Amino acid sequence: MRTISHWIDGKHWDGASTRTGEVSDPATGRVSGQVLLASAEDVDHAVQRARAAAPGWRATSPVRRARVMFAFRELIERHTDDLAALITAEHGKVLSDARGEVARGQDVVEFACGIPELLKGSYSEAASAQIDVHTIRQPLGVVAGITPFNFPAMVPLWMFPVAIACGNAFVLKPSERDPSTSLLLAELLSQAGLPEGVLQVVQGDREAVDALLVHPDVAAISFVGSTPVARHVYATAAQQGKRVQALGGAKNHMIVLPDADLEAAADAAVSAGYGSAGERCMAVSVVVAVDPVGDTLVERIAERSRKLRVGDGRDSVSEMGPLITREHRDRVRGYVDRGVEEGATLVLDGRESTIHGDAEGFFLGPCLFDRVRPEMSIYRDEIFGPVLSVVRAKSYAEALALVNDNPYGNGTALFTRDGGAAQQFEREVEAGMVGINVAIPVPVAFHSFGGWGQSLFGDTHAYGPEGVRFYTRAKVVTSRWADATSRGPDLRFPGSG
Questions:
Q1: How far apart are CA 8 and CA 46, in angstroms?
Q2: CATH fold group of domain 252-436
Q3: CA-based angle 184:440:445, to the nearest 5?
Q4: Which of 457, 451, 334 is nearest to 403 (CA)?
Q5: Which pLDDT does position 485 carry in this prediction?
Q6: Which regions of the chain are under pLDDT 50?
Q7: Which among 37, 212, 218, 463 has the fewest CB atoms less than 10 Å away?
Q8: Nearest to 463, CA basis, from 151, 75, 86, 76
């Protein structure tokens, strides 16, 4: 049985803990490896080694840090297929989707290659009489990231390239469900020239997470996962005085107005609802059809969904793979059962889909509900599976109220040909990421990713300019050199004139 280890000081490390967890191939249901689960002592060792490496890396010039990122970018490009294969083997998503994940993560690495420009401070000459003022940005020290199973390459790449380029040492705790990708990324970064100890990878479960949250030498925590866990991460780490960006769950709505291109809207709903088996925080889980397009839109979504080929992600003809675990698949099936019990119309039953794969795999076909009401559990809860709900609305105002009344505020989309409606929507909607005729509005790397409401705990979004601000802190220096001779004490408050 393959053992998946930690990565400490530039090499694989087994740690002191003897606890392990199973890693499965979701397409077959078979256990493919055992991952080591770190103890609090293992986490402390990783943090201490990162702390030892941090001063030297901080003293390294931004240009040299950028060169490491350039080399890392080239290695990711060369090993895209290797990374995608690991993602598919442990997560289950189809290979084309896995390659796309790697590409979007690589975009953030490319953003981090520009770190010399991004770390430039500001200077004010003669801000007061014979006084100059300048601002500099400095790294925090040791920072940590806790990442989810659904994007084992992309989400870590949202975090550690920016943090490391800014001069920090980084401790990554990936999901124990699909941990191997993190180790290949660490190996590639080591090959790119990163000094030992600047990136540590600690495999583990809640024990490792809680150890990072309270560790006195960890200055900041980045997290992506469910809202209940995000709330715990934020509350615990903030209480310890740490910086925290904790990105939580979502219930993303896609509004379709009567003037929209319904063919394009149906394509988008299927792609955004069932891509990666719905295991995306930016997946569309609710389509709001504004009268009178509901019947036509549902028919076109159903027509496309019936043709989706569900199977092993390594099969080139598969369009949707399995879910991550048997337990999660059964949980999603339970929501389908409840949706029927609560009175929604089950247009397409993924429980009866033909599966082109191993019967023991964690498969569930696309499920489509119509005439879903806000009080139903399939509407209220984040299902995180291939379940798409259609809600009918009489007007734009009613549709907008559905989005704004939802406690999550991650992403949303509007499909329309009306520029005025689009402009009004982007002003009025209560969400952090908005798409206009774009169903999955994940920002490009030189902007930042983050939601509102129960989808984000903390003040800053991930990667991009806000990522640089999160992983650095400003220092303002006020200096006088032109006339430093003593003139005696002056107890008045310093003025700026």
A1: 6
A2: Aldehyde Dehydrogenase; Chain A, domain 2 (3.40.309)
A3: 50
A4: 451
A5: 66
A6: none
A7: 37
A8: 151
Distances (CA, A) of 189 to 11, 84, 402: 12, 17, 44
Ramachandran assignment for 220, one of left (phi > 0), alpha (psi -120 to 50 degrees), beta (any other): beta
The per-type count for the chain, helices as H runs and strands as E runs, is 16, 25
- Active site includes 281? yes
**Domain spans, the chain:** 3-248+455-477, 252-436
Distance (Å, whole) CA 11 – CA 24: 24
Global confidence as pTM = 0.95
Strand-pair partners of 414 = 255, 436
User: H or E segment at 71?
Assistant: helix 62-78
- What would the pLDDT profile of 76-88 be if each residue is shown by its tens digit? 999 999 999 999 9
Grouping H, G, I as helix, E, B as strand and the rest as coil, residue 402 is helix
Predicted local distance difference test score (pLDDT) of residue 481? 84
User: Which residue, among 72, 24, 329, 333, has the nearest Cα to 180 in the 3D structure?
Assistant: 24
- CA nearest 15: which of 53, 41, 52? 41
Nearest to 211 by CA among 426, 15, 455: 15
The pLDDT of residue 283 is 97
First to last CA, the chain: 73
Question: CA–CA separation, 428 vs 435, rounded Å?
Answer: 13
Which residues are paired to 291 by β-bridges? none
- The fourth-level CATH superfamily of domain 3-248+455-477 is Aldehyde Dehydrogenase; Chain A, domain 1 (3.40.605.10)
User: Phi and psi at residue 41, in whole multiples of 5°?
Assistant: -70, -40
Interacting residues of 8 by C-beta distance below 8 A, sequence separation 6+: 15, 45, 46, 49, 197, 200, 201, 202
Q: Is 189 exposed, middle or buried (0-12, 13-18, 19+ CB in 10 A)?
A: buried
What is the rounded distance in angstroms from the CA atom of residue 124 to the CA atom of residue 45? 43
CB under 8 Å to 23, separation ≥6 — which residues?
Answer: 4, 31, 32, 33, 34, 35, 90, 176, 177, 178, 179, 180
Residue 357: predicted pLDDT: 85
Q: What is the pLDDT of residue 132?
A: 93
Q: What three-state secondary structure class fits 474?
A: strand
pLDDT digits (tens, 9 = 90+) for 285-333: 999 999 999 999 999 999 999 999 999 999 999 999 999 999 999 999 9
| Active-site position among 113, 166, 281, 367 | 281
Residues 205, 196 contacting (CB under 8 angstroms): no
Phi and psi at 453, nearest 5°, equal: 60, -135
Phi, psi of 225 (to 5 degrees): 175, -155
